[in-house]
Amino acid sequence: MSELYKKQTTVWRLEGKKVSPGTPGAVRETIDSRKWYGTVNGKATPLSRDKAVAAKMLRKLLGDADLAGVGLVDPFAEHRKNPLTDHLKGFRTAMEGKGGTPKHVDLTMTRLLAVLNGIKAVWLSDLDAVRAADFLTAKRADRPAVTLPLGKESFRLAEAAELLGLKPAAVSKAVWRNGLNASGAGKARRFPRSTVQALADKAALGMSAETFNHHVRALRAFGRWLARERRWPVNPFETMALLNVSTDRRHDRRELTADELRQLMEAARNSTWTFRGLAGRDRWALYLTACGTGFRVRALAGLTPEDFDLSANMPSVTLPARLSKNKKGKVQPLPADVADALRSYLADKPADQPIWPGNWNTDAAEMLRIDLDAAGIAYIVEGPDGPLYADFHALRHSYLTLGGRSGIDLRTLQELAGHSSPTITARYSHRRLHDLAGAVEKLPRLLPKDENGALQATGTDGRMTETAEKICLEFARPAAPLGHSGASSDPKGDLKDSDCPFPKSLDTSALGVPCPLPSSVSRLGLEPRTYGLTYRTGFRPPTFAAAVWTLSSPPA
Q: Are strands 190-192 and 252-253 parallel, antiparallel or unpaired?
């Protein structure tokens, strides 16, 4: 075994100063190195200042050298020498190479660095799932809110920003997004104490379960990349579990009803202001396309007129793979009224240029909120588990919810949404109380004969009511052309004459009175409709246009 030794360096000194060898009167001096050295593979290798530690290091290096001599080497030895910053640069390059958007890449790296810096990880050997989980769990705890100065009832923007530890622009945006009170403009802008206190309370909240999960997913992705690239033997974060987000919802989205969508688009079309280059008519066409396709913001921002095929019998838009979240291209059918409206709008647009250019997509929620205000539609409403928001992504929720209420089955909705699992689609297609009430009405009656000996009506029998009009109002439903016969999308459940434009009246001859509501009635039994045997046996339409045309699309 190689012996430990210290390197010796010879110097010449004259009156305490280093001088050249041979200087008259100079004294020769031998200096030992601070560290102990050992010889490994014929080379002098620095070890440690502590002799006992240096001996252990030398034994380890000599053992590794012996194993390498017979082909048993550590495949990760070279990567162990590189700091985490080098590995993070490689991971970022890999994400960009896969086509990740700059926003996604930046956000993922920000989350990664927050945790790695929090656990003081510098080398690969510092990566530890338990320490990372402990760090994130500590961030979940609420903090004491900032104490506002006593007696101060009004704050300038700079004062509020300093108190909250935020940039002035972030304070203004938070006030706007949360619908908080403020007065004045410019330098005269003032925020009441209640507004600043509300922002302080919000800032004191700990990390949400969803944010916790986002950080865990970023760590898992980094760990998978390390293992896949053979930089580390296993994913060090694979064992980190996700939290149940259903118990801690802070930004749930809501769907807009068909009437609200019509109001929104009418307000946008009549608008006289411009948002980052998009005039009122541009935003109207943008919202219409979003509601008619369910596409995400990034996809909409990259569409060009040549992506649309509006002259065919089955109008559609092609989503290129580069704009799709799953990196797969698809052809999306368009509702007929949406295609008719877009045909004239796209007529004078350059074929190979984005239809909606500019950077509006970085703040699409703010753009939509302004138009919602103009239409008299609330951006935030109270839901059963907290506030519900109508941001731009809520248009995708609206598309899938209207599709579900129109009778499109979940599997078809999944194809239209481009989701990998129907479980994800189910989270987008909402069912409210009036939808559930409509579904419950289809159940058969369970009670036996009443006190007078008459049989109680079942779901397939006409229920006896006081007047024929009440019978019509209870049973008349417009029949969906395809799929399941869903509940009414009207939140109040009211049925108007215009909802039943059918020529044949409901047969109430058994009651001896005519039905005052002309209608054709769909059966309220439990057996759902299907697409027919041709679809079941393998025939499939070239697109899902038949399903899309059942959507309650806003008129052009």
A: unpaired
What is the three-class DSSP state of 382? strand
> Quick one: which of 305, 86, 314, 119 has its CA closest to 215?
119
DSSP 228-258: HTTSSSS-TTTTPPPP-GGGS-SSEE-PPPH
pLDDT number for residue 278: 96
Identify any residues that bridge with 387 across adjacent strands, giving them in sequence order: 382
Distances from the Cα of 308 to the Cαs of 223, 251, 317, in angstroms?
41, 33, 4
Residue located via tokens 């599997």: 411
Alpha-carbon distance 232 to 200, whole Å?
A: 43
Residues 6+ apart with CB under 8 A from 133: 240
Structure tokens at 93: 């390059």
Range of lowest pLDDT (301-305, 376-380, 531-535, 542-546): 531-535
Residue with the bigger pLDDT between 458 and 427: it is 427
Using CA atoms, how far apart are residues 75 and 111, in angstroms rounded to an integer?
29
**What share of the chain has pLDDT > 90, as a percent?**
59
Three-class SS state of 17: strand
Sequence-distant contacts of 506-515: CB under 8 A, at least 24 apart? 506/471, 506/472, 506/475, 506/476, 508/468, 508/471, 508/472, 510/462, 511/468, 511/471, 513/467, 513/468, 514/468, 515/468, 515/469, 515/471, 515/472
Question: Taking each helix axis from N to C terminus, what angle separates 168-177 and 157-164, rounded to the nearest 10 degrees?
Answer: 90
Contacts (Cβ under 8 Å, ≥6 apart) of 538: none
Q: Please provide the DSSP assignment of 473-508 as one string.
A: HHH--PPPSSS--PPPS-TT----GGG---SSBP--
pTM of full prediction above 0.90 = no
CA 463 to chain centre: 46
Amino acid at 376: G
